[in-house]
Amino acid sequence: MTDGLQSSRVGRILLVEDNQNDVILTREAFKRVKLAVDLFHVENGQQCLDFLRKSGPYSDAPTPDLVLLDLNMPLMDGREALQALVADDSLRHVPVVILTTSGAEKDILDMYKLRCSSYIIKPVDFNQFVCIVDELTNYWFSIVVLPS
Amino acid sequence: MGKFAISAICCCLVIALCVSVLAGWQFDLIVLRRILPNALPTTLLTALVMLALATALTTSLMVLRGKLSPKWVWVCWGLAGASILVALMEGMQYLVNLVPGLEVAFYPEGVLQQGGVFPGRPSPQAIVSALLVGLSIGLSLESGRRTQRVVMLLGLMGMILPWLALFGYASTTSQLYALLEAPQTGISPLAAIGFLALGIGVIGLRPDEGLIGLLTVPSPGGQLVRWLLPIALVVPLVAGWVVTYWSTSGLFGMSIGIALSWGVTSLLFAGLVIWQGVTIHQYDSHLKLQANVLERSNQELQEFAYVSSHDLQEPLRNISGFVQLLQQTYQGQLDDEANDWINRTVASAHQMQMMIRDILAYSRVDSRIGPLELTPLADVFNEVSAVLADLIRDANATVTCNGLPTVMGDRLQLVQLLQNLIGNALKYHSDQSPRVHVSAERKGKEWVVAVQDNGIGIEPQHQERIFGIFRRLHTQDEYPGTGIGLAVCRRVVERHGGKTWVTSAPGQGSTFYFTIPDEEVVQT
Predict the structure, then answer these.
(1) Phi then psi for B402, rounded to 5 degrees?
(2) Would you tell me which residues 328-347 of chain B have a C-beta closer than 8 angstroms to some C-beta of chain A?
(3) For the whole model, what pTM was predicted?
(4) Confidence check: pLDDT of B521 > 60
(5) How far apart are alpha carbons B157 and A1 in whole angstroms?
(6) How far A51 CA sits from the closest chain B CA (Å)?
């Protein structure tokens, strides 16, 4: 069994989110789940790409196991970021989960066409959000085998 | 008088004309019978027939204006029928060559004075016109689009021979108004004008339909007809008359006159066509501009819908998130009241999010309509029953349907429509276990679909209000919901070209109706 990740280290998640309130709420949700993860945070698509490529101020950044990507952000939004990520051979293997407010069918379809791993609509209820984060971490860090 | 002005003027004109002609016969005033010195006189019988038809037309007009009750239709038919009968009898006399006819019995002295081959007998043109116009006036009070088209057509046909006769008089060509072998037996100018006026009068009875409808619309089509029709009818008549007058008075040669009238007429029509073309072109560009503006505002509306779905929900989620966080983090330090307030804040945020979602759903009815395709409503019903199966079972409800047709529609929207209506019927149930029945009935070219329940019912004064956006008759505590369901229903039905309404009484249940065009109608 290749369960290297679970035993060797805590999972790393990169949260790409421009709304500071959502960042706080997401951090709080992650604190309340069973599985601990390292949560990193950048504010837009451009920073996300820089973080993954370890360029600019992110030269020391770790490689995340999973990206949680918001869609509507300034400078470079989630759509453009995912497009760039998929086009980059060195980043294509990083699973991307869309975490957004938008329930627009067009967004959902477009993101799956870009081969996002999952698409999650943020619920209004915080407790529900905690449940989702719990399931998410459980799925990605104890069920799924990720590339190391 | 208003919109019936044309008919009323025609009636008055014909009655005055007939009275004048009858006076001419009674008091032996030749000028009243023939106006033009060398024209044929109007026969007594023709004047009587025209008077009867004008009276019938006036009756018709009064009934349509609401001044007389519809019972008076028999007067209209009686007078028109009598005229038709007289015309038929006189016509028969021409065919079997019976001399003398009905006219002798009517007014023997008049006949003797009249001269000609068939003295006192109405001309063949007058007989044909009387038959056509008489039938048209007789039918004028019948309802139905097809009948009204026949009325208009008969009226128009009745005007052809009198119109040609006027041309004949204008160009002194007797072949156009009299019989070849008997030049003294022809339609008089007064009778020609009379039948023309009767024809126009009967067409004018329906001012909003057909030809008169086209004449009165403000669109370029109406403008075109308003300008070109009178000119097309009158100019050749005047030109013919001028040419004839000039050539007979020796002012010009006939050929110069004809060439001149051709030239002037063609120039006049060319000018008119160009002018109308410019008008229509301008109107067209104006329409295109408007279409563009509409397109853009539609686009903006779509963007607005997206923005509201995303940007409005984000702060809302943050509000409820932080309040819940507060509650969880400071558990034990908050009293019951504080917890209650937090719960209320969260519930309100939920409610508002639901409203935002529902506004979106409502705005999408317009933009999301797919191509209309043949959809059996029975299939739609089965789909909805499956979706609502849990609800139906929990409520111990009976949901049935019968006689549902196949219609042209957007399947998803029809499902939404029926789901909202049946869902409402289950939700607003009374003490009895809910019974919902969906049925359809064909009315003319559309289907009326009824969703009947035995629920709590609706007060009559609220029955229109409930179709508005976010209009509710109950609080959240009584029946949860935002109040978008029926607004979406109405919009879906309107998108399909139908109407929605409800009949209900408190405690008696409600029946929601919607109409949808029959598939055959949509396809043709």
Answers:
(1) -155, 150
(2) 328, 346
(3) 0.55
(4) no
(5) 96
(6) 25
